[in-house]
Amino acid sequence: MTNAPTDQTALDLAHAAMLADESDDTARLRFYERLADSEMFLLLAEEPVDDNVTPELFEVSDDRFVLIFDREDRLAQFVGREAPYAALSGRMIASILAGQGIGLGVNLEVAPSSILIPSEAVVWLDQTLGQTPEEAEARIEEIGRPMGLPEALLTALDAKLATATGLAHSAYLAGATYEGGARNHLLAFIDAVPAAEGALAQAVSEALTFSGIEAGALDVSFLRASDPLAAKLAQWGLRFDLPQHEEAQEVGLSAPGSDPEKPPILR
């Protein structure tokens, strides 16, 4: 019997929605999206050395798994003692393990989201996260209200943008008519950090993918608040406010893998 805290995490809720209807592909995709976006605690066999981490490997029916948990207390509850771990995003763990024949044991025995994910699914997740949106240029002639978008996409965008702390001030979702008469929906980020534009475009692409919607269903652009088009978007568009960094933050030592530019080395 699973012994878990009464407060459920986003991963617990996504897992429950997936189990509620196993024929619901969107719910299954949403679970994998939550897994990719969540900070996970990877159980290690020994303390990290520099950027080298050695995961604890477990064999189940001739398959190998690492163990990851979405809360530190869940890892401690499973192990029953102090144990070394590395805090990494689910997407980084998938990237590290893909192609090595290693699966994921998620929250085993300590949460309602306890699940074994085979190595083939880890490869699929890494490949899905690696898809990049295409770039194109087109002149916008008219802005209107967004119409007819699936509720699943709006929910996915809201959840995805809630993780984009400090990458932009806000975003507007609107209908757009382009030069030549083509129409599509547009998500425009306002005052995005220049170095973050690629990450924001990728986040939108993932929201579409994990909602089961074709990538071409939404265009992405980046504007300054002073741009005249931004005023039209504010008038007609659906606004998303992105979370911002607190002004004062305590600086401390970072765990291996906490810097996305310097992923840990798996041994």
Radius of gyration, CA atoms, in whole angstroms: 20 Å
What is the CATH T-level topology of the largest domain? Trna Endonuclease, Chain: A, domain 1
The CATH architecture category of the largest domain equals: 3-Layer(aba) Sandwich
Shape: elongated
Strand portion: 15-25%
* CATH domain class of the largest domain: Alpha Beta
Q: Tell me roughly what share of residues is in helical segments.
A: 25-40%
The count of DSSP E runs of length 2 or more, i.e. the number of strands, is 13
- Compute the number of helices: 8
In the predicted model, the low-confidence regions spanning at least 5 consecutive residues are 1-5, 248-258
Cα-to-Cα separation, first versus last residue: 33 Å
How confident overall, as mean pLDDT? 85
Instruction: Give me the CATH superfamily of the largest domain.
Output: Uncharacterised protein PF11572, DUF3234
Structural class: alpha+beta
- Tell me the series of helices and strands, N- to C-terminal: HHEEEEHEHEEHEHEEHEHEE
Estimate nothing, just give the exact number of structural domains: 2
**Largest sheet, described in full?**
6 strands, mixed
Region (Disordered): 248-267
Domain SseB protein N-terminal: 19-122
Protein name: SseB protein N-terminal domain-containing protein
Pfam families: SseB
Explain what the structure shows.
InterPro entries: SseB_N. This is SseB protein N-terminal domain-containing protein. Pfam families: SseB. It comes from Thalassovita autumnalis. By secondary structure, the protein is an alpha+beta fold. It folds into 2 domains: 121 residues, Uncharacterised protein PF11572, DUF3234 (Trna Endonuclease, Chain: A, domain 1); 102 residues, GMP Synthetase, Chain A, domain 3. Helix content is 31%, strand content 24%. The chain contains 8 helices and 13 strands. The strands form 3 sheets. Strands 1, 3, 4, 5, 6 and 7 form a 6-stranded mixed sheet that branches. Strands 8, 9, 10, 11 and 12 form a 5-stranded mixed sheet that branches. It has a two-stranded parallel sheet with strand order 2-13. Strand 10, helix 7 and strand 11 form a beta-alpha-beta unit. Helix 4 packs across helix 5 and helix 6 runs antiparallel to helix 7. The longest helix has 13 residues. It is elongated, with a radius of gyration of 20 Å. The N terminus is likely disordered.
